[in-house]
Amino acid sequence: MAKIKKKVTVAIADDHGLLRTALARLVNTFEDYDVVIEASNGKELKEKITQLGIPDIVMLDVNMPEMDGYETAQWLNKNYPQIKILALSMLSDEKTIIKMFRLGAKGYLLKNTNPEELKQALYTLVNKNFYLSDYVSEKLVSGLNVDGGKEQKEVVLNEKEREFLRLTCSELSYKDIAAKMFLSTRTIDDYRASLFNRLKVHSRVGLVMYAIRNGIAEV
């Protein structure tokens, strides 16, 4: 007897009811996915997970009342680290993206995306554990993968560079990082420029993604 394939269970937390309902209907049209929880904020999501069980993926709006995406991501990562968090937002600024990944998100998707990219995001999260939308990748993390898809050579980092990368994953400014490392801002600028070149990234988000992917910084 053929074994029935288990569907990937999905929870959606978004305070906009029409969007949340439309997303749920769309995801349910994807063959291998089943929306099992809908919530209007993080507090309601917590209650429904307790009542209905743990989903495989949580599609999480960043800006919500009562318990926003930041607080919810932190709670999910602490209590259910096996859940893959896909952040949803209209915001594409570095600060928002870095904070969501630092709090445990595994993917970041802009709300104006098309259905095909949403489907691809869910598939990539399940199979590769990490997803950035094309728009965010092109705008903020271009160069994270080297030209032509060739495998990037291993970059040997000294302890100061690794410390710099760990601090880059925080909310500290580069000036504050310099003070914390007891270095001049000029030296920090040199570290940043050197790592941009050696790691093939073009932004702070690129540095953060490299640090997370290579276990230099924990989320």
Q: Can you give a write-up of this model?
A:
The longest helix has 15 residues, at about 185-200. The chain is of the alpha/beta class and about 220 residues long. A six-stranded parallel β-sheet has the order 2-1-3-4-5-6, sandwiched between helices. The radius of gyration is 19 Å and the shape is elongated. Helix content is about 50%, strand content about 15%. It has two domains: about 10-140, Rossmann fold (3-Layer(aba) Sandwich); about 145-215, Winged helix-like DNA-binding domain superfamily/Winged helix DNA-binding domain (Arc Repressor Mutant, subunit A), CATH 1.10.10.10. Helix 5 links the parallel strand 5 and strand 6 (about 130). The chain is built from ten helices and six strands, in the order E-H-E-H-E-H-E-H-E-H-E-H-H-H-H-H. Helix 4 packs parallel to helix 10 and helix 8 packs across helix 9 (about 185-200). It has helices at about 15-30, 40-50, 70-80, 95-100, 115-130, 135-140, 160-170, 175-180, 185-200, 205-215; strands spanning about 10-15, 35-40, 55-60, 85-90, 105-110, 130.
